[in-house]
């Protein structure tokens, strides 16, 4: 028989005076329960599947990263996705627009492979992808009318780069090849800086303008 229940999205406003009961299926019997409030861990939003998700209201407050694994998320209003979190793409698309209105989003990390379209994306800490994705021709991309701003100290990280180069059959050819880690369809402003590149990044790897 069940000995406990974990509620991962309990809402808010609970205190020591809160009571919890379990009711029978027919509502005729009710059992009081003991409970313990865990510290709020803060979860993110994960969008999976090939279809789209349209966020039509502002003021989202989830504390974790936004992850898009296929399909797209469209921000219908400014603030549909909370700023100051991470953005992870796994083949998905983020549309920062509704009609002719474009929106801005500031994230700490821009990770994976996929595209951000329209609007302006500010990355404050790091642009991150993997050597596996880069070698497979999958790069992070800012497309359409999307703009990007890299904060001071923002860096570009490629996980697994050393191992990929070591395993390559022809390292010199690999070093000469052009592998975009980040593709920008919209030119940077004249005074805008690129993220700090790793010292071991091969020539031809990096930002494709």
Describe the structure.
With 209 residues, the chain is mainly beta. The protein has helices at 131-135, 161-167, 171-176; strands at residues 20-23, 30-33, 45-48, 52-55, 66-69, 72-75, 85-95, 97-98, 101-102, 104-117, 120-130, 140-143, 147-150, 155-159, 179-184, 205-208. Strands 3, 4, 5, 6, 7, 10, 11, 12, 13, 14, 15 and 16 form a 12-stranded parallel beta sheet that branches. Strands 1-2 form a two-stranded antiparallel ribbon. The relative contact order is 0.11. The mean pLDDT is 85.
Gross geometry: elongated
What is the element string, with H for helices and E for strands?
Answer: EEEEEEEEEEEHEEEHHEE
Strand count, sense and barrel status of the largest sheet are: 12 strands, parallel
Radius of gyration: 22 Å
**Mean pLDDT metric:** 85
Q: What class do helices, strands and sheet pairing give? A: mainly beta
**Hey, roughly how much beta strand do the residues contain?**
35-45%
Helix content: under 10%
Low-confidence stretches: none
SSE layout:
Layout: E1 20-23, E2 30-33, E3 45-48, E4 52-55, E5 66-69, E6 72-75, E7 85-95, E8 97-98, E9 101-102, E10 104-117, E11 120-130, H1 131-135, E12 140-143, E13 147-150, E14 155-159, H2 161-167, H3 171-176, E15 179-184, E16 205-208
Parallel strand pairs: 3-5, 4-6, 5-7, 6-7, 7-10, 10-11, 10-12, 11-13, 11-14, 12-15, 15-16
Antiparallel strand pairs: 1-2, 8-9
């Amino acid at each position: 028989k069940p000995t406990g229940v974990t509620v991962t999205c309990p809402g808010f406003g609970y205190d020591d005076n809160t009571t919890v009961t379990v009711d029978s299926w027919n509502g005729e019997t009710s059992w009081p329960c003991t409970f313990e409030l865990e510290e709020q861990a803060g979860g993110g939003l994960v969008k999976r599947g090939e279809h789209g998700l349209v966020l039509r209201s502002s003021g989202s407050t989830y504390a974790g990263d936004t992850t898009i694994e296929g399909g797209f998320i469209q921000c219908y209003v400014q603030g549909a996705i909370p700023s100051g979190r991470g953005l992870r793409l796994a083949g998905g698309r983020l549309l920062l627009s509704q009609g002719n209105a474009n929106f801005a989003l500031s994230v700490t990390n821009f990770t994976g492979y996929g595209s951000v379209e329209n609007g302006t994306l500010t990355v404050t800490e790091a642009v991150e992808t993997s050597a596996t994705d880069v070698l497979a021709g999958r790069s992070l991309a800012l497309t359409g009318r999307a703009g990007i701003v890299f904060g001071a100290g923002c860096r570009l990280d490629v996980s697994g780069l050393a191992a990929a180069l070591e395993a390559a059959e022809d390292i010199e050819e690999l070093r000469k090849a052009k592998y975009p880690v980040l593709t920008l369809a919209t030119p940077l402003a004249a005074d805008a800086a690129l993220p700090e590149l790793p010292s071991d990044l091969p020539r031809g790897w990096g930002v494709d303008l």
